[in-house]
């Protein structure tokens, strides 16, 4: 990756060195590196000279994936301002809370979200601008206030542990993450990276998309994930890499096109998730595609621990080894399991507006529990707050969820604890069966009994049509416990 201390400097280097080479392909648009840099300069001039965007101001974006969102990021980097990408899956009150919390100065939107954007603007007294207004002229060269330690990206956490918090990524954080991700994925200019995950999340933006631009590769950008569009892009545009999550992996594997789809251009599929269901991983491996896990958090880049292609087949369930420059500590070790602490140059130092994100020594406490193998690789076993302690024994949800998810009738499942007077807690299991399946609780229990110790077996079962999840797809175990109640059976 080109060496630079700010994102505008990096883009300028790519524009000089790569010029007409394609940076982005979006529908029938192809944007070269020189044009991408020119667009960012024009947009910075418009925002800074005409709109009066000041250093540190938060500019919100509400929309599907679009090249202008990436141009906006580079333009705001030039101005020393901050991009606030809004999660399109949230409800209006949740958007309002985020905008109010950080005091956003303006809201930009695409046509798909024009109606809620206008409503948000009217309710909050916020200037609202459609996507097309970003093409205007700015009058004169833009101000240059880029600096490594200036915040550029404000991303709110999913709120599984309470009220969402805004993680502030500086330009230095983003560049460090780009360098790590590019090195581990061996990104080079000939690569073609297919981006189908949303850019409002650090996974879609920072695991492959920005690292690809930093490496001079081509980003094949899709507005949103859809199985047909993804298969079409793979077969016609011939990407070499793509990033998926369990939900999109499942949608691809379950699609009728999966068995005959031409996936030959891909050298690997990377997956952003703490835990990957083994059946999905094996389905990709059966097609000759190594699934490379990336572990991290909104606050950590998120490229922290990664499983390279060469080790993927032999380390199913593991998230691999620390990325270059990442320190890992397992704190509070018990029975070989401890909380993952991370310290690295891509880890944010504060939440909005000025709440520390790390401890006094710079360690970020993830709240995730992991064990380390003899070869140094790490495997995530669950969340610290999700740990079930029954009769003095520690039971990690992942120990039960992985084998139960392998049952042919189970679509998805989640283990959680319920208070119990005799045992402290007992294990409960929420299960969503596949359409048409009629497996009984006793049959599911017997399936688990052949694979885990008896003390770990669920005492209570909860049948659901779908698991309650946050907007980022994380299971809400507290909601499950509330639904199950003390008398659930």
Automatic annotation (TrEMBL):
Keywords: Ligase. Pfam families: AMP-binding, AMP-binding_C. Residues 399-474 form the AMP-binding enzyme C-terminal domain. It comes from the Bacteria. The keyword Ligase applies. GO terms for molecular function: medium-chain fatty acid-CoA ligase activity. Residues 14-352 form the AMP-dependent synthetase/ligase domain. Gene3D superfamilies: 3.30.300.30, N-terminal domain of ligase-like. GO terms for biological process: fatty acid metabolic process. Belongs to the ATP-dependent AMP-binding enzyme family. This is AMP-binding protein. It comes from Ramlibacter pinisoli. The lineage of its organism: Bacteria, Pseudomonadati, Pseudomonadota, Betaproteobacteria, Burkholderiales.
């Amino acid at each position: 990756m080109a060496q630079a201390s700010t994102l505008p400097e990096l883009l300028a280097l790519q524009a000089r060195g790569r010029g007409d080479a394609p940076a982005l392909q979006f529908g029938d648009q192809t944007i070269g590196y020189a044009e991408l840099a020119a667009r960012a300069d024009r947009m910075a001039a418009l925002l800074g000279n005409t709109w009066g965007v000041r250093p540190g101001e938060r500019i919100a974006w509400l929309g599907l994936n679009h090249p202008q969102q990436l141009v906006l990021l580079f333009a705001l980097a030039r101005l020393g301002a901050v991009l606030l990408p809004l999660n399109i899956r949230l409800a209006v009150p949740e958007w309002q809370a985020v905008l109010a919390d950080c005091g956003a100065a303006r809201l930009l939107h695409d046509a798909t979200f024009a109606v809620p954007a206008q409503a948000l603007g009217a309710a909050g007294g916020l200037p609202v601008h459609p996507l097309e207004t970003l093409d205007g002229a700015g009058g004169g060269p833009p101000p240059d206030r880029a600096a490594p330690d200036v915040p550029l990206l404000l991303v709110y956490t999913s709120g599984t542990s309470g009220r969402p918090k805004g993680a502030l990524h500086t330009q230095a954080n983003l560049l460090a993450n780009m360098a790590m991700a590019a090195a581990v994925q061996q990104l080079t200019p000939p690569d073609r990276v297919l981006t189908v995950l949303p850019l409002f999340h650090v996974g879609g933006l920072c695991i492959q998309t920005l690292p690809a631009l930093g490496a001079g590769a081509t980003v094949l950008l899709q507005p949103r994930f859809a199985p047909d569009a993804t298969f079409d892009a793979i077969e016609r545009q011939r990407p070499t890499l793509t990033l998926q999550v369990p939900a999109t992996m499942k949608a691809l594997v379950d699609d009728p096109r999966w068995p005959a789809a031409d996936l030959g251009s891909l050298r690997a599929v990377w997956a952003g998730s703490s835990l990957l269901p083994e059946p999905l991983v094996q389905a990709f491996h059966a097609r000759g595609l190594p699934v490379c896990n990336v572990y991290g958090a909104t606050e950590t880049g998120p490229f922290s621990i990664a499983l390279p292609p060469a080790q993927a087949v032999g380390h199913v369930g593991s998230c691999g080894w620390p990325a270059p420059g990442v320190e890992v500590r397992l704190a509070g070790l018990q029975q070989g399991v401890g909380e993952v602490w991370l310290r690295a140059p891509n880890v944010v130092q504060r939440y909005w507006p000025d709440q520390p994100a790390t401890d006094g020594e710079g360690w970020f406490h993830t709240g995730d529990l992991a064990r380390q193998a003899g070869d140094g690789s790490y495997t995530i076993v669950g969340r610290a707050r999700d740990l079930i302690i029954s009769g003095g024994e520690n039971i990690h949800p992942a120990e039960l969820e992985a084998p139960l998810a392998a049952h042919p009738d189970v679509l998805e499942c989640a283990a959680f604890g319920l208070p119990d007077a005799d045992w402290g807690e007992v294990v409960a299991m929420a299960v969503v069966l596949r359409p048409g399946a009629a497996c009984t609780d006793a049959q599911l229990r017997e399936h688990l009994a052949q694979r885990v110790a008896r003390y770990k077996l669920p005492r209570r079962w909860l049948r659901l049509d779908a698991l309650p999840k946050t907007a980022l797809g994380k299971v809400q175990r507290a909601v499950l416990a509330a639904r199950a109640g003390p008398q659930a059976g």
